[in-house]
Amino acid sequence: MNKIVWFRYDLRLEDNEAFIEATKNGNVLPIFIFDENYYKLDTSSSFHLKFCEDSLKDLNQSLKNLYNSKINIYYGDTTEILKNISKKFNISEIYSHHVFKNNYLSKIDGKISKFFKECNIQWYLFNQFGIQLGKRDRYRWSYNWNKFINQPVLEKRVNCNFIIDPDHNKNCAISTNFIDDKLIQEGGRKNAVKLLNSFLDNRSDNYQKEMSSPITGEKSCSRLSPYITYGNISLREIYRATKQKLNEDISIVKKKSLIAFKSRLAWHCHFIQKLEMEPTLDYKAQNAVIDSRLNRELNEEKLEVWKAGMTGWPFFDACMRQLTSTGWINFRMRAMMMSVASYNLWLPWREVGIHLATLFLDYEPGIHWSQVGMQSGTTGINTVRAYSVTKQGKDHDKNGDYIRKWIPELRMIPTKYIHEPWKMSEEEQTNFGCRIGVDYPSPILDEKESRKEGIKKTYAARKSPKAKEKSRAVYQKHGSRKRPRKKSSKKDNTSNGSRQTTLF
Q1: Is the residue at 133 inside a domain?
Q2: CA dist 36 to 31, 33, 46, 175, Å?
Q3: Model pTM greater than 0.70?
Q4: CB-based burial of residue 144 (10 Å sphere; 0-12 exposed, 13-18 middle, 19+ buried)?
Q5: Is residue 171 exposed (0-12), middle (13-18) or buried (19+ Cβ within 10 Å)?
Q6: Which pLDDT tens digit goes with each residue over 342-389?
Q7: Which of 50, 234, 244, 422 is the most buried if burial means most Cβ atoms within 10 Å?
Q8: In this model, does residue 146 exceed pLDDT 50?
Q9: H helices within 68-138, ranges in order?
Q10: Domain presence at residue 158
């Protein structure tokens, strides 16, 4: 019996149900397909491709070391490739995991499924995230997910012959292009395991306290999210290892941090479930009534300034430049990026979301587009989150060291002015070697006033009976069913009514 194990976003051998089931007997062809059109989508980027290539190299090495085999890599049209190799090797069974990504891949899966049925090929699909297929409400979701995540990690028992296709890996038409790939996380199983261990052993000590800052978060966040996106390590492995660490004799602070981290694993799947229940998240607002009433218009000049980190608001610009260079920024600053685009600059959520998708190394459509909707105020069920850039900067970068690192134009500016350099006199600007409007841009808008105006217009858009009716429907479908957290007595420029995550 000849089989295919089709690696997609599960680039590992450990706790990989598709691989384990496929290799129990028979002859197995391990494959990966670079779809020629997938990497042309407006949400794809060389960041994603690099991480995927790193992951495949690591997977290939594991197959070689353990089984003297290799992964057969193909480039081109997914449907045609599967048709050709299925006929070439007389394939009777195909094993893979469900993919919860976007409409493009869903359509491909539909075509493939039809072909397999016509050819009497059995396609075995497995679920690596505990997503409830076909589910249209949240009833018993937490119960079902907890049942999934607490299952034992699967053990490999390989008893098959691996097939190598001499015609694979030809005519590669996809290439990477990086300014400095040393700044980008390297994909692969071994890096995922190393990060998990270092996080659980020491980096998580102050996770709960330090994750909100792009400075401390760079070290204290787990940095595991891209490895989960590409399946270098399974969610179950991370969950189990975290539980084990919690059973050890650790400090109360560390215990609280790991409990907070563990809860984010559930939130990861909570958001992917949204995409399964509503596959149009990436191009249709959940509350179309509110979205139409907001009437945000695309201003190309504002969008380009936002993309380039040239708004004239130093802390925001520093965050955007870090993201553009590394593919990573912490969760709070991701929310701030959407806030600036949505409320200060009044830009449409989709154009903003597409650009961020290309930059996020860990781009996961279910999480990403759910967050874009929440942060842009187009769900109708989340409190408006409009961040004060200056306040965030002073809270997380008091002395301006982070700003100076990512904005060399401001390197000589004293701390007194680092968050608001436009307040310097012309003489001071000359003395410190940074003329505002010349060496570094003047603020594109009054940050405080534009934010206040954006908040006002957003709440106004939510007031109509139709908008409220739609919001109730959105909550009924997607609400977490958890009790809302109590609002802080302190005034803050962010809401605390609903959670945000990029994970880790």
Answers
A1: no
A2: 15, 9, 13, 11
A3: yes
A4: middle
A5: exposed
A6: 999 999 999 999 999 999 999 999 999 999 999 999 999 988 999 999
A7: 234
A8: yes
A9: 78-88, 103-118
A10: no
Give the 3-state secondary structure of residue 220. Answer: helix
Decide if 111 contacts 6 (C-beta within 8 A).
Answer: no
- Kindly give the pairing relationship between strand 161-162 and strand 122-126: unpaired
* Averaged confidence pLDDT in the chain: 92
Distance CA 30, CA 28 (A): 6
The structure tokens listed for 203 are 């980096």
Domain carrying residue 421: 288-478
- Quote the CA–CA distance of 313 and 389 in Å, as a whole number: 7
84: burial class by Cβ within 10 Å (0-12, 13-18, 19+)? middle
Q: Which residues contact 17 (CB under 8 A, 6 or more apart)?
A: 97, 126, 128, 154
Q: Are residues 314 and 419 in the same domain?
A: yes
**Nearest-angstrom CA–CA distance, 353 and 268:** 18
Q: Is residue 163 part of a domain?
A: no
Mean pLDDT on 252-258: 95
CA-based radius of gyration for the chain: 24
For residue 432, pLDDT beyond 60: yes
State the burial class of residue 483 (Cβ atoms within 10 Å of its Cβ: 0-12, 13-18, 19+). Answer: exposed
- 280-321 per-position pLDDT tens digit: 999 999 999 999 999 999 999 999 999 999 999 999 999 999
Q: Specify the CATH number for the domain of residue 470.
A: 1.10.579.10
Confidence at residue 183, expressed as pLDDT on a 0 to 100 scale:
85
**How many beta carbons lie within 10 A of that of residue 348, not counting itself?**
20
Task: State the Cα–Cα distance between residues 174 and 63, nearest whole angstrom.
Answer: 23
Is residue 327 within 8 Å of residue 46, measured between CB atoms? no
The torsion region of residue 139 among left (phi > 0), alpha (psi -120 to 50) and beta comes to beta
Interatomic CA distance for residues 44 and 158, integer angstroms: 34
Residue 46 lies in a domain: yes
